[in-house]
Amino acid sequence: MTRKYGILAIPLILVLFFVGCATRIGPGRVGIKVDLAGSQRGVEDLPIRTGWVFYNFLSSTIVEYPTSVQTAKWTRDPNEGSSNNEEMSFNTKDGLTVYGDLSVSYHLDASKVPAFYVKFRNDDITQFTHGFLRNVARDAINRTGSQYTVQEIMGEKKSELEQNSRLDLQKQVADIGVVIDQFGFIGSPRPPQSVIDAINAKVQAQQIAVQKQNELVQSEADAAKLVAAAEGQAKAQIAVANGEAESNRVRAASISQNIIEWQKLTVTDRWIAKWNGQVPQVQTGTNGPGMLLDIRPDR
Prior knowledge:
Distance between the termini: 201 Å
Number of domains: 3
Low-confidence stretches: none
Mean pLDDT: 79
Number of helices: 7
Structural class: alpha+beta
Strand order of the largest sheet: 3-2-5
CATH architecture of the largest domain: 2-Layer Sandwich
Radius of gyration: 56 Å
CATH topology of the largest domain: Tetrahydropterin Synthase, Chain A
CATH superfamily of the largest domain: Band 7 domain
Helix content: 40-55%
């Protein structure tokens, strides 16, 4: 009986040993082996990749970390991120306080996970994200935001602020193997309401000025068209007058003495064509006092 139980105990011991001395590293994660006894106590330098890992649970332990992208949102909206108000604030170059909702995405460099563990001694990545990383991110946005005026942040320099803040944050966490994939505002930064009103008023004034300028340009264009039309009409009238004058000149130049004599002969020919062959019955004296003589032959 003792021998029978001994034989049955062997598989059970092997199972317990396997469960206690083996673990599986899943995809998107990396493990590190920590030696708890012996002369080589401490964290091994090389991380453990995906797959089964065997170790002595009496003298070693395996700590896992995710290497997939982690995302955090710090907002004042209780429906996004934490239910608490986690918005961040920073001071601008002109001394104003600006609030904003921010998000960050990052992942761990697998080759530097041992150094990450040595620094934080905690495998809870959430605690790192909303603790250490949040503080470093807040410092980065404060340092960078102080280099811009509120008008620049609300305008064309917002993207530049986000980029420089991400570079600053990356510089602070590079030595612990954290790679910042994204860092920036969710929506627009929120300066004081008085500043927003002033910016809106300035933008409205600029829009009105542009509208007036456009109206002035249009009026000038319309006036130019009218002037051009009037000039064109005047030129047309001048061209007509010049044409008539030239025509008259040509006509006048074409009238010669020969044409006048020819016209006279034409008139005479017309009179001859109309004469019935009878001579005048009465004519006046050429030298007398104007007597009328009857020169008919039958008298």
